[in-house]
Amino acid sequence: MRLITLSFYLAGLINIVGMLLIATPELTDLYNSYSSTILGTSGGGVTLGRQVSVSTEYPAVFSPEGCFCIMLWGLAYISVASKFKQVPLLCLVFCIEKVFYSLTWFNWY
């Protein structure tokens, strides 16, 4: 396996596993909200009163929807891992997105 292919897999896993580790409350709220809307039941919505979470500390980037989209980006990285030569401009978009979120993390901490 080539190093760049492995890098795409690693970047995708970091996005997915990282969000599952630090944003579980946000993702749970999002799931509950959407599932209650689809099923027509009550009980959806965002839980208020949480002490500290990634979305309360930086809501502009790490809202529940933003955390989910970061995981989607991870799946996109994995989907092109073995085809990166065929989509060079998409790889440029991935690079710009990864730099943006990395700088966001460094500025957050």
Per the principal axes of the C-alpha atoms, what is the gross shape?
A: globular
Helix content: over 70%
Work out the radius of gyration.
16 Å
Distance between the termini: 34 Å
- What's the story with the biggest beta sheet? none
Structure annotation, total helices: 5
Nearest-integer average pLDDT: 82
Instruction: Give the helices and strands as they follow along the chain.
Output: HHHHH
The fraction of residues assigned to DSSP E strands is: under 5%
Parts with pLDDT < 50 across at least 5 consecutive residues: none
Backbone structural class? mainly alpha
Q: What's the count of strands?
A: 0
Written account of the structure:
The chain is mainly alpha-helical. The chain is built from five helices and no strands. The chain has helices at 3-22, 24-39, 54-57, 64-79, 88-108. The longest helix is centred in the last third of the chain and has 21 residues, at 88-108. The relative contact order is 0.16.
Name a few traits of the molecule.
109 residues; mainly alpha
What's the helix and strand layout?
Blueprint: H1 3-22, H2 24-39, H3 54-57, H4 64-79, H5 88-108
Summarize the structure.
The protein is mostly helical and 109 residues long. 71% of the residues lie in helices and 0% in strands.
